[in-house]
Design goal:
alpha/beta; TIM Barrel
């Protein structure tokens, strides 16, 4: 019987093939926000290798427990990569820099500086993505696409961090055209950055698309999709 993770992998592969892409060009970050530890352990044993969390506090409690459970069954936890995918408050940035391998939600210089300072102190190369508000919704975090060149210029040489991609959230709507337009704008933003900083952007990722809209994201060029409930089921009410 296929597991939920295997089913999601197949669906993502089918979405990639429909638009002429290699399924291996799309990675899955399993977003375990408000999910029980045992579900995350099961998904990892089924093949998940990249884990996303929305809150620093929840991740700080969950990561050591999950890794201990995995080590008890002989799993090599060095295979895992932990992503911060939620909005990051500046007062949590130092903790996040030590806890995560990737921060997908950098939206200003203040947060970047705090991540840089802690990562450098730890002798760590922290992978960071810039979050971009491509939907124009005031409720969404992220830098405006027109401001991203200036932000990159200010943070690209900071020690301890490595710029490695862009992230966005699609709009909360059933209008698939609006969703696709939001994802297309992230790809267009990356294209503009490549013109301005051609040597910086080699190998950059585009993180966009979740359980309800990953097909549109893959069609627009996503290299990372952030999948939660499709893998783990409904969230708890923690």
């Amino acid at each position: 019987m296929n597991t939920q993770f295997e089913t999601v992998c197949r669906q993502i592969a089918e979405s990639a093939l429909r638009v002429g892409r290699n399924p291996e060009s799309v990675r899955i970050v399993g977003v375990s926000k408000r999910q029980p530890n045992d579900k995350l352990v099961t998904a990892v044993l089924d093949g998940l290798r990249e884990i996303g969390e929305n809150r620093v506090q929840e991740a700080s409690e969950k990561r050591p427990i999950v890794e201990k459970l995995l080590e008890e069954v002989g799993f090599d936890i060095s295979q895992l990569k932990w992503h911060m995918v939620g909005r990051l408050q500046s007062n949590k940035a130092a903790t996040a820099a030590g806890l995560f391998d990737v921060i997908q939600s950098v939206e200003n210089v203040k947060i970047a500086n705090r991540l840089s300072r802690t990562a450098a102190e730890l002798g760590k190369s922290l992978e960071v993505f810039i979050e971009v508000n491509t939907s124009g919704e005031a409720s969404k975090a992220g830098v405006h696409p027109d401001s991203i060149i200036d932000l990159i210029g200010e943070i690209k040489s900071l020690p301890g961090i490595k710029l490695n991609g862009l992230m966005t959230l699609g709009p909360l709507t059933e209008d698939r055209d609006r969703i696709r337009a939001s994802f297309d704008r992230l790809k267009e933003t990356l294209d503009g950055i490549e013109v301005e900083f051609p040597s910086l952007t080699a190998g950059w990722d585009l993180s966009m698309g979740m359980s309800g809209d990953f097909s549109e994201a893959i069609a627009a060029g996503a290299t990372i999709v952030r999948i939660g409930t499709a893998i783990f089921g409904p969230r708890t009410t923690i």
